[in-house]
Batch of 4 targets.
Target 1
Amino acid sequence: MKVLQLGPYPPPHGGVQSNLVALRRFLRKQGIPCAVINITRHRKPEGDEVYYPRNAFGLLQLLLRLRYDILHLHIGGMLTRRLVRLAYVCSLVPGTRSVVTFHSGGYPSTLEGQQARPKSFAGFVFRRLDALIGVNPEIIDFFARLGVPAEHRHLIYPHALVEDQTAPSFPEPLNSFFERHRPVLISVGLLESEYQLNLQVDVLESVRRAFPRSGLIMIGSGSLESELRRTIQSKPYAEHILLNGDVPHLITMEAIRESHVMLRTTLYDGDAVSVREALYVGTPVIATDNRMRPAAVRLIPKSDVTMLAKAIIETLAEPKPPCPGAAPDESNLRAVLDLYRELLGGNRGSNH
């Protein structure tokens, strides 16, 4: 078996990237070759079977040149026409089984997602694929609205990427910030409107009244970075908020481990990988209730700064739980591999 994954490859490091990297590492540990084609604007030098095509033509050349049995496309965020067309191309590549994982937590609840029908272009394309993976039940329902047969719909929850390397020491300004602040709140994710980052900035005022040495670290990048920096600078406590940008995943995980609470405030969200990573290293998580959080997460209502402050202060008053230290559960990665084997063992669908 040979696998080719298409999707966002880090950096930057987000939930979809973590799933893709975790699956690749798992497959290679099983002795299964797994190459990656990055489909974002973020590029690095090619190497270790990670490819960075410059345009759609270059991507198509790679699809036709590389040899593989499974072609696995990862989609996060909104289901754009460009991504649907890419899924269609994947379904046309001869001699392969086509798989798509849809990682979006919010798209199925949008007006466009609610209006999805079998006669749409997305419905036509998704029914051509050999298998569709959804990371939460809402996505599986979305596939059903598109007319995807039940036997092609697979619910497989996301996997937290746990590094098997020792993290290097914190670079500046992270190192100095941790030295000056205790306790530390942290958030990790895209700097986009759906994550209500202003709520986290605002709540620090109340938290610092209860814990005068507290601070907030925000790791990530996005379209709101400049606006968010201006908002932070307008606060009298601006020096106690570090908008750090993207950092390597090893350092991100160590920062989560060293922090006292992780925040995940959202207007809409899926089963966020960063939440599972925080729980794995023993950092308490406070998150907006989206009806699919892990049991250990403390839930708050959407857009409620008062309840967020209450949850943070109460959580900080309790001892931080010890790091579980158990080996990560790889059952979801095994489920993907089992699906690959099932597809290669069966006959190619009549939709090709």
Note: The two ends are 20 Å apart (CA to CA).
Target 2
Amino acid sequence: MPLVTTKEMFEKSMKEHYAIGAFNINNMEFIQAITEAANEAKSPVILQVSSSAIKYAGLKYLMKMVEAAVEENDIPIALHLDHGPDFETCKMCIDAGFTSVMIDGSKYDFEENVSLTKKVVDYAHSKGVVVEAELGKLAGIEDEVNVSSNDAMYTDPDQAEEFVKRTGCDSLAIAIGTSHGAYKFKGEAKLRFDILAKIKEKLPNTPIVLHGASSVIPKLVEMCNENGGNIPGAKGCPNEMLKEAGEKGVSKINVDTDLRLAMTAQIRRVFNEDPSIFDPRKYLGEARKEIKSTVLDKINNVFCSANKA
């Protein structure tokens, strides 16, 4: 099965009230673990690449590894640009074969965001590629995204309706309380499901996206810290909240931090338990297993996309 756009998978998710996981990839082990897990669970999956990942791994290397994963697995796989910073990056990825791109104009004022998003939409649609846009500002730090809690801003439902109509974007990332990175909440976790409900009421046919939605899995944080890590007080979105988000109209939920933690926790554990190990296959193999286990749990128990391929 060739790479697909997110159009059909999102239509099905909106009808049946579940979410699809969008997992960030950086190297071969990430790609293998995510797609093997999705294939095993018979779930559609979105592989997403940030501009930082492109700088790290190289666009051609990432494309060839994703092509291999598509050949190895018989499930719908979309390849998505995460947080495209400008038109040029989006165009580069569209021309390279991505089936979906995100243009992140959330740092600009409303009119400039509309203008930039519309420019990307026009080009992407001419090539058969779908576009995700963002309205509202999520706090936190992840790759090029760096927004202080003072600058965070919930998505306005009326603006969301106008934004989608004027830009023609295919899906919309909204801000309802999630944030990027490992430190999402200082106190009790809270998502504004009331805002989500109002947005879905105004945009019933537009797939909604949640960024900054890793649960920052406590056992992985603990494994990191027990083996020399220093990640105190990390706190993410509880799984039950993410599951509720999928049931209430969120079609795409992004996961990055949890996969980073899975890889790092296992590598730290292997090094700590046996300092004589220097074969990368031994520690990266354990990291790959943990990433796969993490993705399987998300698909089966949080996003509920198993058997939806």
Note: The chain has a mean pLDDT of 93.
Target 3
Amino acid sequence: MSLDQAVMIGDMMTTGFHGAEMANVGLGSTVAVFGIGPVGLMAVAGAHLLGAARILAVGSRPNAVTVAKEYGATEIIDYHNGDTVRQIMDLTDGAGVDAAITAGGGVETIGQAVEVLQPGGTLGNINAMEHAESIPIPLAAWGAGLGNKTIKGDVCPGGRARMEQLAALVKAGRIDPGRLITHRFTNFEDIEEALLLMHEKPKNLIKPAVILE
């Protein structure tokens, strides 16, 4: 595999795929992915490989939308076009989704995901929310606490066995995580610029990488 592909496996790919795994994405399921940054895009790819029939990806940046479709997103939810929850419910004829993955947004995103989740469904959260004291969950959407909706949150798994599993998918051509890289640098001195890009988050950014060959 290329270095571009390899460098994305150890964090972006394993985290995004873990979101799909936590959400119990199954064959023929309908999945909502909130946030299509690099981790969310990998969640889209993970859901696709786990057999989701429909993947509703929430995001608006053109380059991220393009990659989301390449990774298996069947519909794009642009929050600039109206309420995210309403758009998802309209697209699913009011049924909602079997699984949801939150990979971006603020604390309100958890509540939105719970709202669109069907009873018996699972939400896998891979978004670190470090600057909030609490997470609001709409009580009605949770069935007054009895809605049979599961919320999971976890850090990504690592280790040699996990990396070998993901690398096998890349080597077999099932997924190209190198598509995440929009800004590629080749000098050690470029590390600061790459870090600043991650901080500033320009609209054309998905992921920067410094590849020293």
Note: The chain has one domain: 3-153.
Target 4
Amino acid sequence: MTPVATTVSFDMRVPDWAGPPAQIYGAALEMGAYADSIGVDRIGLMEHHGSQDGYLPQPFVMAGGIAAMTKRVRLLLGAVILPLHDPVLIAEQMAVVDLMSGGRLSVIFGAGYVAQEFEMFGVSLRDRGRVLDEKIAIVLRALAGERFEVEGRPVFVRPLPVQDPHDMIYVGGGVAASALRAARMGVGLGPMRADIIPIYEAECRRLGREPGDYFRPCHRLPGIIMLSDDPARTWALLEPHAFHVVAEYAKWAAQEPGSNSPFAGLTTLAALRASNMFAVWTPDELVANAHLVEDRGTFVFQPLVGGFPPAEGWKSLELLAGVIPRLKALVR
């Protein structure tokens, strides 16, 4: 039995109308330190590139900053779009952040889907699955301390991380191929859909090993929660920021052929409120909904979502501080 888990995430989106990015970045670092001090379980950092609103393009840099200001909380980066990157550099970044944090880093690798990002880095979107496989294998070998060659290129990474690389790495995605890839690579699973978890578990056992770690999406939960003593007031402040985030994700999803994006159709504020992607709850409502957090699931809070004013985000975190002891008293 485990306590109800909590995650505080940052995507660092700052629309032009939302305020200066330096203010948001400073607040995120301070909020990360505060989240650590109140007992939050994970800090999540995401990655995208070439976004007009400055979506976080360098999660390892941000993770290093947060690692220096925290002692206990785990740092979860995901999804890092590995096909866009040199896997040797990624291995080096992982090792350094893991050492800085004392072994608190977890990384979800994803294949990516935004065409403009692949164009920006000169990588073929069509080949992303094959490239992801190749680069995960290189990262694993490099972080295991091997000295080897890849197509004539010598690879040797030092320093090495605190953790076993197989325990640090997760494969992200929402299709069966993601679950099979994670099992084949001997790493964890960071699924977008809970129904691929049994595929992962079965494939691991077929390959003769017990399943590794995984996260469970809780589809009955809101994607992002804001705490408030006055939900109506907070909703009014949150709506333009939440609507911006949804609209930007919808633009990216529209580039992906056959996409079944959850952001499609959320073109009005009424539709946004009804979507269950965002919720503004009182602390008592949070505790009352704790039964919706399934095993290996988590409540997710994003106090600066879409450039949300830091002063308002702090109110949510301070309310979370008061409710975490109640959540930890509840076990699944």
Note: Residues 231-254 form the longest helix (24 residues).
